[in-house]
Amino acid sequence: MEPQDSSSGPKVPERRQGRRIFDWISEPRSIELTPFQQFTVDIDGSKSPLGPMKDWPAQLRHMVLLIFADSSPAVVYWGDGNTIVYNEPYTQLIGQKHPHLQGQDPKIQFAEIWDYFGPMLDKQKEDVITVVGDEAFLLLHRHGFLEETFFSWKFVPVIGPEGWVVASHATVHEVTREIISDRRLRTVRTLSLELSKAKTIKDLWRFLIKALENAALDLPLALLYTISDPSEISKYLRSSPAGTPNSVHVSLEASIGVHPEHTSAPAQFDLTADQNWLSAAFQKAMKELVQVEIRISNELSSIFGGIEWRGYGAPSSSAIVCPITPTNAKTVLAFLVVGLNPRRKYDEDFQGFIHLLTQQVTTPTVSTVILREEIERR
Questions:
Q1: pLDDT tens digits, residue range 130-188?
Q2: What is the mean pLDDT of residues 45-49?
Q3: What are the pLDDT digits (tens) for 224-252?
Q4: 14 in a domain, yes or no?
Q5: How much is the CA Rg of the chain, to the nearest whole Å?
Q6: I need a labelling partner for 345 at 20 to 30 A (CA). Which of 5, 57, 217, 259 fits?
């Protein structure tokens, strides 16, 4: 059977001895290349340690054909220099390292993790042992910042015709989302358990902070501000936009990751009159009953000078102001300010985690405690 003419439709694999040929590396090519195959073919061999593709050893060709046929992320580390060739699913794991990594020395693009993988691959050449990693932690620079990631993998040594290890065939699976989600859910459960013990509003605030103390990675910093006089809020909301806004005083109830006397955590202030990094966000959260993100820019970061950041030891790039309100009520009782994990993006998963945390403080059981104490106070 002759191959179909390209003018009448897609080119089908040529048949030889009754079998189709799917080798897209060897020339002349009898099949139409995918965009990723074409990208790999077009790599300048003079700028790659592997040289031109037409000069590749047969075993390297076979290994590359193998990983390109794999629907899961897979890679070949070839030769003494561990030159890397990876398949298309692998690009989803490495972010901006693609396309510059393909066919190159990985210790350049993987500089932040090569102290681990370089010696591991060199050792594998000596002991010919398959290396398995399960939920291994890596700080990977793939989206413009050092990112907390977790991977499971298997590195299998490839023995060449001379009898020694010439390459490593690796399959990789990212488990970052699962690991971090489990960790955050443990924090939410801990918070729910602690809050169930609350009998007074003071208990509520104390147990809230206690539960967050063990969430150093996700929440390296936390500030809890309470409204000094809840009646001030209703006066503030009723005030005319054109007039001078009524005062709303807040007091620092507790803090995590920063000393109570630090300049970033004023003990008391009027959020309508005093200008600090929290006042505008507090006003917006109080008016709209929404969470407000504060970007910690270079200018704002000077406020946090001298802080020994929990978790990864790096300053948060954002803080979230969460208004604490009882169920079915529109009165803010407090503001929880949390600094975010600098090694993770503030994505939908992170937003959902913060929402779950604040939701625990506004459950009907907790609201009953707040209502009972408010009645007694009045």
A1: 999 999 999 999 999 999 999 999 999 999 999 999 999 999 999 999 999 999 999 99
A2: 96
A3: 999 988 778 878 777 766 666 789 999 99
A4: no
A5: 29
A6: 259
CATH number at residue 91: 3.30.450.20
Q: Which of 329, 230, 231, 331 is nearest to 287 (CA)?
A: 331
Collapsed DSSP state (helix, strand, coil) of residue 198? coil
Task: Determine whether 52 is exposed, middle or buried from the number of CB atoms within 10 Å of its CB (0-12, 13-18, 19+).
Answer: exposed
Which residue type is seen at 12? Answer: V
On whether residue 82 sits in a domain, the answer given is yes
Phi, psi angles (nearest 5°) of residue 312: -90, 5
Evaluate whether residue 192 is within a structural domain. Answer: yes
Residues 204 and 118 in one domain: no
- Asked if residue 160 and residue 203 are part of one domain, the reply reads no
Cα separation, 301 vs 376, in Å, equals 42
55 and 117 together in one domain: yes
Tell me phi and psi for residue 106, to 5 degrees.
-70, -20
CATH (domain of 286): 3.30.450.40
Q: Are 319 and 296 in contact (CB under 8 A)?
A: yes
Asked if residue 364 and residue 347 are part of one domain, the reply reads yes
Task: Give the structural domain span for 237.
Answer: 178-377
Tokens of 220: 């390296």
What is the per-residue DSSP string for 116-170?
HHHHHHHHHHHH---EEEEEEEEEEESSSSEEEEEEEEEEEEEE-TTSSEEEEEE
Residue 333 and residue 230: Cα distance in Å, rounded?
A: 7
Q: What's the number of domains the chain is made of?
A: 2
> How far apart, in Å, do the first and last CA atoms of the chain sit?
93
- Is residue 1 domain-resident? no
Token output for 280: 């505008």
* Digit-coded pLDDT (tens) for 350-359: 999 999 999 8
Asked if 264 and 292 touch (Cβ cutoff 8 Å), the reply is no
pTM of the full structure? 0.89
